[in-house]
Design a protein that fits this description.
heterodimer; A: mainly beta; Methylamine Dehydrogenase, Chain H; six-stranded mixed β-sheet; four-stranded antiparallel β-sheet; about 55% strand; B: Alpha-D-Glucose-1,6-Bisphosphate, Chain A, domain 4; seven-stranded antiparallel β-sheet; globular
Amino acid sequence: MPRLARAGGRLRAGLSGLALLAALFATLFDPLPAGAAEAVVTVQGANAVEILDLDAGTVAARIPVPGSPAGIALSPDRRIAYVTRPDGPGLAILDLDARRVTGTLPLPGGPLGIACNPRSGAVYVADWYGKRLFVLVPKEGTLVPDGEIAVGASPSGIAVTPDGATLLVANREADTVSVIDAASRRETKAIPVGKHPFGITLDPDGKRAYTANVLSDDVSVIDLAEGREIGRVKTGERPYVVALARGRGFVTDQYTASVTVFDLASLERLAAIDVGDHPEGIAASRDGTRLYVANWGANTVSVIDSGTLSVTKEIAVGDGPRAFGDFLR
Amino acid sequence: MKMLALATAAALAVVSFSAEAHGPTRRKISESVEINAPADKVWAVVGNFQDMSWLPPVEKTEGTGGNEAKATRTLTLKGGATVVEELSKYSADKKSYSYRIDKVDVKTLPVNDYSSTIEVEDAGGKSKVTWKGAFYRGYMNNDPPPELNDENSEKAVRGLYRTGLDALKAKVEKGS
């Protein structure tokens, strides 16, 4: 069984039962932190996680994280980051306010995709060499392993519905999306999609999901109530993941160094915006006015204005930014 | 002579026996060269996707689609190995094109999911040519054989770019 290794070797004094209770309430009622908007970017080649001040457009902090960090998920209160380390293999737990690693946890296989349940705080990690998710639950300020969930071959991106009841998993080699009942931890359905789905994104009300299909160069649109794919959108070459803002989808196209924009209602393709080399993670600001793109090849984060569909800023970051997952807070 | 042999003859002599107990992460290599010639002149040599004759190991280039996105080319190397490539993006204005390898034997070039960009920039009347690539090592699972590990895959690509860029410089500066 994986074992938790604490970076500091000591329990944090501040975590009492009361604090846990407070954290639970924060989870349920107040998911957003105060303060400046930040991006938490895994910079894989640099073996670090960088925290970007998005108002200033600068790197505010760099936290060393060995093991080629790639995937990222944030706790419901947005104060903790969980980062996968494919070369650990395992994951790291980061206190984002204190700007430090508070623990590391070894995992077998190839941990890459990761997501956090917005209600329970449970963390799901995809083993992209296997057919399983690892489940880890928060306990006393850290995470403890709590079993596995069987999914399709080579699980990659994971999304959780806002009510915390359903997980969606993009199975890269199986060309399917697993629908998982979070309570029973069982797959209730496998929905066929395009070729090699990698990233998966849910809309805010949990009704539709979008997969970026790396080998068929398109996006599959899934209606969750119907439990099937209802549309397909052509993208640039080797799409990675989709972000949603103001009624539009934004897809990072790795090989064409662009972001494909499409209308969520008509599924019509609207534009392709040139960004840096090999764009990967993408996410929208809370108000939907901007998108942030981690350019793995160019070592930059591009800022896109979702109204004008143009790049307004490039922020220089460390080597190999990936930010695969939920990386804005 | 195969590309791998050309690029890694030296690298393979130094083999690491330490097992890597983890899977691959994507690697990146970027090499550049300064050429004493205007960018237009250099682009005239490298800017045709259907002509890789400036790269020493290449014996012939055959393809379809010209310089349009989705054009393909098959490189036949000295010794007979082939590499099938597809054009992803082409800009004569930016003097840049991006392509991917669709098919190559890892014995020829030890890479998977390889994509690459070649770009020519003006450098005060001279030119700077950058050739960069993104790829996974030749062996996609845990515990690769030494010749297909990260280190040797990177050495092979770096060696290829170095060979190509130095040959390009020599060819353009000689005016041939």
